[in-house]
Amino acid sequence: MNSKTFKKNFLWGGAVAAHQLEGAYNEGGKGLSIADLMTLGSNKKPRELTKTVEKSKYYPNHKAIDFYHHYKGDIALMAEMGFKAFRTSIAWTRIFPNGDETKPNEAGLKFYDHVFDECLKHNIQPVVTLSHFEMPYHLVTKYGGWSNRKLITFFTRFAHVCFERYHNKVKYWMTFNEINNQTNYDSDISVYEDSGIKFKAGDDKQKIMYQAAHYELVASSEVVQIGHAIDPSLQIGCMLAFCPIYPATSKPEYVLFTKRAMDSRLYFGDVQVNGEYPNWLKTYFKNKNYNLDITGKDLEILKLGTVDYIGFSYYMSFTTKYTNHMDYRESKDLVRNPFIKISDWGWPIDPVGLRYALNWMTTRWHKPLFVVENGLGAYDKLTSDHKIHDDYRINYLREHIIQMRKAVTEDGVDLIGYLPWGCIDLVSASTGEMKKRYGFIYVDEDDYGNGSLKRYKKDSFYWYKKVIATNGKDL
Ligand code: BGP
Fold this sequence. Notes:
475 residues; alpha/beta; TIM Barrel; 8-stranded parallel beta barrel; two-stranded parallel ribbon; 16 helices; 12% strand; binds 6-O-phosphono-beta-D-galactopyranose
């Protein structure tokens, strides 16, 4: 047992996102979000987005695990594990059903009052993401999602309402979940989720992505300023998907290409932390003749709205082959790393990569870091006596916490907390499945919404409770 460990007020807890667990997709005046149009599908197939909900299709997020009606019991279970923090998101469509209204929906606001009050009752700090893969679908159809500058106004209005309403209850905020995932614009999935943009044939996808990302970055910076003006004690962070990228061989060209690949995935952090675009990217825009809509006022906003901390998800590392171009494409350039095992869903399992991530970001950005997602999506088996023996999940988390502890105690990384993903089973973001489970708490429901919705404690529930009680000493 290592006697050196995490700081005293380290935020142990777990993370979820509104659309993946709340269900009640049309209750309390909620509007239709992009996530409500997601059908069951595999990682490789883009999600099917239809204009309306079709009766014959099953949409997993409509019911999800019905947290909307179960939140009290669920939060009590989290409290039983000793959670200090619980990350969730606010569904934009509960507050502004269409996204472009000026008056918020009171029933939606009340729901989150109840959720946050319930957390606080148990001494659990809510950690809130404003946008987690689910903009109002109306903003997609009417405005073309984030390809339209108008979205900045709608999003900042939404954020303003949330800060005003909840700033006494919520101290930790994040603007856009995994804002950098849209660099994987070859996959329609991430484009839909993050930007609400559907490409047409012949589009310069990369240019469109950079433009949409710019509007999001401006919106994010404005939101940081709005939040600080309402309450200077708020901690407002960005949220990045961090996947270290390793070169497949030590050939210098590979190493250089890999560096560029990381820079292009993570430039969002440069803008959100440093308040400006990195030089390599400005040069890239120029060389490509992109002439993006980036105004002088935008650049001022970026400068003034830098984040307080960096929230990030860590699931895996990537390994890439050299393709002799400066346009890194996740879908084309990745290879299997012979030193790394993969999960049931093909995600590389690399605990050391988490220590690498923590060090990489500390050196580059000098900000407190917050692991707001990490975990193993796996098949679980409910035994006849209602147990779930998920030693594979415990092993995964243990190995990652060990690396995280080393980063803190040996490398001096400033780490706020650790919030493993899907602390209660929920709908998978990439596949819509229930059977891809992450939780400490099992929910009796299958991919098609059949099941009792009963909650059961997995072995990892008791293990994590002990980890929290010993502040990460007893793993
Ligand atoms: C992240 C998302 C989460 C979550 C997680 C696991 O990218 O922020 O919403 O779902 O990945 O992914 P999946 O659900 O596809 O297994």
